[in-house]
Amino acid sequence: MPDAPREESRPMQPAGESPDHRPTAPAKGAARPVAPWVRTRLRASPGAAAGFALLVFVTALLAAALPRVTDAYETRGLRHGIRTAAPGQSQLEVTYPLPQGATVAPATLREEQEELRGLLPAPLRTDPGQTVNGIRTMEPVQGLDPWLPQPDHEPARFTLSSPSDLAAHAVLRQGRMARGTPERPEAVVTTATARALGIKPGSVVHVPGISAAPVALTVTGVVEPRDPRRPYWVVDPLLSAPVLAMTDHPTEPKRYWRASLVVAPESGSALTSTTGTPEVFWRFPAVADHLTARDAAPFAAAVDSARSGPASAEIREVTGPTGLVTTGLDEISAAYAATKDAIGPVVAVAVFGIGSVAAVVVAMTGGLFLSRRDGELTLLRARGASLPGIGFRLLGETVAVAVPAALLGLVAAVALVRGPETPGASALTGSVPLLPSVLGAALVALVAALVLPVRAVLRHRALRLHGAREDLVDAKPSRRRTVAELTLLVLAAGAIGSLRLRGTADAGDHLVSAAPVFVGVIAALALVRIQPLPLRWLARPAARMRGVVGPLAIARAARSSATGVLPLLALVLALTTAAFGGSVLAGVADARDRAAVLATGADARIEGRTEGVPLPAGLTEAVRGVKGVEEALPVQVEYGVALPSPVATDQPMSAPLVSVDPAAYARLAGRTANGAFPEGLLASTGKGGPEAVGDTDRVLPAIASPEVAARLGDQPMGLIAASGSFRVKVVAVRSSTPAVRGEDFLVVNAADITNRRPTAVLVSGAPAGAALRTAVEAKSKEFAVTLSTETRHSYVDSPLQSGAEGLYSAAIGAGAAYAVVAVLLSLTQSGPERATLLSRLRTMGLTRRQGRRLLGLEALPPAVFAALGGALAGWATVPLLAPGVDLHRLALAAAAGGVGPGGVPLRADPWSLVLPALAVVLLTGATAGVQAWWTGRRSSVKELRAGDAR
């Protein structure tokens, strides 16, 4: 804040001047011209006021932007979950069975559709353009016509469906649209179905009826979907394209065609004459554009109501008692809530950390202004000024600066963080509520306005001597401070114990989220007590050193002022927050790397789009020639191999059989830390290849997963597979292996099998994806290339994840910025005293160079202690809180396989501990050096004025 204005000296009366010419005193009762206190103070030091306003503005901006950023990424996460879900999951489907021979008019279905839409509770909304109604068969019906294709002599099977509004979703390519009647039903097929089954306009397809006579459906046209990716077609994929299916015969499965006939709505009642078990259906695809984070709980409640609550009862009044509502929206809401609940407490740790650092820095600013005006306030108290008078005047100064700055920060936050576009949202504030931001900015303004007057009132509640010494030697810790430290220690222990026992399930427990802050506070308070002791011990041997700079710097650092608590606290909190946040981000990155390696098995994986397809000739050599490929390992994976058991009553079990080159495969497993083993475990038996077909008694050493090992036991067991017939003996057990993604496997030496047909290539190195795919497609287009880097990127599938990570990174950056401000404020506060000391020592013969070294060395011990304390506090915080923190959803919301049995633990990241601590020491040293250089250039006249009490 501004310094006190200097009093103007009264000019002496010139000799011979008559007293009558002196200025007359103002008449009694006349108003004395008094300059306004606030305006005078702000004008006296505009630079300090501008700096304080900037700090308040930035802090208010962060406080107001935090709830808006959180709400924005939570809103995007909710919408993303609904939009990216499978169409069958993100819709409500209402159905009821139709009795045989019943008729339902299309107009009736349309009327009931709008009635059902009106019964859906808010905020659940649906897309009218993609809503579909009609009649369909729940069971497929056989095509009785001999002209239909019959692979393996199995007749084609059809699903009959009469979806509404076909003309709006399909383009007619041949013939005409179907109309017909229930007695003479008509249908159309898609171009893919017509091409695969040889159907054309005019064809008649016969299906079994409930009577002896089959039901004949006349195909009148061929259509093509306008957008096959829309829910109209995707919910039932057979509508757009047929598939080759397999019968479920255990020994001789046969292929047959599965397809769909799109029946005209006017002919829909004809489906009740077939054996396909018809039902009426309405499909209501949900829309998410209007949803916000605050709608998550009401949306879940609305879905539950529609499924089995009050809304469901109203729906059954329309459909009848047999009506059924099915949806996957409840699972989407549950997954969103689980991810949010898992991420929220982890993010809250960063929020509490940066908030605490900001509060301490604002308090340091008040301390700086108070130290500059301490003499003025002491003099005012000595002349009879009351504490309320001083406090309210100081409050007026800070309010005049803090409130406008906080208001500007609020406006900037609202302008910068708008949130996703939402229909009906305010054009001024966007879709994010304004109240949390207003409260955040108001809290910043309140703290900034009160910190100076409160500290001034507490400091000057008793009359003090001007210029009294207040260093650490005299300012002994009081009983109140001891009680406060013990209270914080108990709170920190309680928070950490609660987190370890209960985890982060309760997002509303702010004590748990503030546990790292309490650890940092205790560490800072302990360092303040401990810091002078080693320096005083070091001062004794330093006194015998040659020269005066070293001993004097150590002695002054040991007698540091008690006001050093806040700078130390700010730095320790910032370092603790950075260590914890860096460990979280490092843990997330490591988990994704690990999951990607487990998913691909190597840096890249090449395998057929269909299981068991052998590699074409020359593919492995072509891959080895791609730039960046260090090694290409062909492996043979045979899925579904039946496993024998020494216990006859065991249930059937199968697992993939993997045939590998032991030396190369052992290197890959060791490099990826994915089931590493010594290559000698899979030593060759010397019997393999086609010539060993008849030797079924040879025993192959094998590496198995735990369940497979338990199944086979410790004795050799016979296997019958496409790779050959032989016996295997488990020689090692591993929980995972690079070649397969599943939990069960059996790995043998490829040299010992009789039928070698590699099916996949595991690539090590850093090849370009485009070049690798080009090399593979040149050999065959039936093989897919999967890169571990692409797999890793796919794990960040939700704005909840990316938003939380971005918020964490921003919190760490803001903490670093506040740490820089804390260092600058600390050195600025001690600047006048250090300048005075340097000036006095220079009169005693100290050179400029020695003075600069003195100021630089004096500032380093507190910075070193803060760096050590912050690093130790961060290192202690991570293992203390790790049992209660699970980063799985933050790291791997979309990972199907996860990272193995170890989960995603939180571990201390060495770089996050060391780098910020070193940065604090280097920053303090550089700042002190610049300050010493600048101080050495200035004249010493001001600091050496006669009568100055400093």
Report what the structure shows:
- Helix content is 48%, strand content 14%.
- With 950 residues, the protein is of the alpha+beta class.
- The strands form three sheets. It has a nine-stranded mixed sheet, sandwiched between helices. Strands 3, 4, 5, 6, 7, 8, 9 and 10 form an eight-stranded mixed sheet that branches. A four-stranded antiparallel sheet has the order 2-11-1-12.
- The relative contact order is 0.10.
Please summarize the sheet with the most strands.
9 strands, mixed
Overall spatial form: globular
Give the count of helical stretches. 28
Helix proportion range: 40-55%
Q: How many distinct beta strands?
A: 21
The share of residues in extended strands comes to: 5-15%
Side by side, the strands of the main sheet go 17-18-16-19-15-14-20-13-21
* SS-based class: alpha+beta
Q: What is the terminal-to-terminal distance?
A: 20 Å
Regions with pLDDT < 50 over 5+ consecutive residues? Answer: 1-21, 469-475, 946-950
Mean pLDDT: 81
Radius of gyration over alpha carbons?
39 Å
Question: What's this model, at a glance?
Answer:
By secondary structure, this protein is an alpha+beta fold. Helices cover 48% and strands 14% of the residues. The protein is built from 28 helices and 21 strands.
